[in-house]
């Protein structure tokens, strides 16, 4: 399935060698130090309440099949499996999956690319924690959406939790001016972000004693995401600020519920 989307303009001088590419960041970034780093940032503090909200949002019977993509160390996969759902977690990081299998030995975890999910059908697919936009090209990102639609049952739902371009633009301002760099510091953890508003790319460098890694993200606006999701094979697409359906505001992240 070929998917088109309005592409951000690229300056003539931009070259691939100037960018962090997935091949040279993902394998290193998602290592044993990854979880410790984001624990420091408090990113996992509300996991149980997130799972409660996801269960209430999906309203699926116990035994329903769910795909968690990418699953990381099983933060959502494991607890959902323990609640009685038949859930499969997939990830492209052997290190993260080793951790997931140690933590949740009764769950199914598969090492695979987001664009090649295990055969379904699934009643729901979860793509959480801004885990869309990792690939080198937008065509590859959108191929993942089409692959997810292919393995969903008719009427099945895709739930995405993502920080959109609008969110980043709201956060990174000096008055009315968008700034291109940002520094975040939490104790001895330092994060340096570089935003390219023309190409809609975000490069991040996290550093703490004994650990230094880079990652990158293709940023998408809500309208770009809505277009891509529809063209991937989904029908109704709804946007909210959280899993409870709160209306979006400028400072909020975005939860998308798309129905096949």
Structure characterization notes:
- It is built from eight helices and 13 strands.
- It has 260 residues and is an alpha/beta fold.
- Helix content is 28%, strand content 29%.
- Helix 6 (138-150) crosses helix 8.
- The protein starts with 25 loop residues before the first helix and ends with a strand.
- It is globular.
- Helix 4 links the parallel strand 1 (65-68) and strand 2 (86-91).
- The strands form three sheets. A seven-stranded mixed sheet has the order 3-2-1-4-5-13-12, with helices on both faces.
Helix-strand blueprint:
Layout: H1 26-29, H2 32-40, H3 47-58, E1 65-68, H4 77-82, E2 86-91, H5 94-103, E3 108-111, E4 122-127, H6 138-150, E5 152-162, H7 165-171, E6 173-174, E7 177-178, E8 181-186, E9 189-196, E10 201-208, E11 211-218, H8 222-232, E12 237-240, E13 254-259
Parallel strand pairs: 1-2, 1-4, 2-3, 4-5
Antiparallel strand pairs: 5-13, 6-7, 8-9, 9-10, 10-11, 12-13
Helix pairs in contact: 6-8
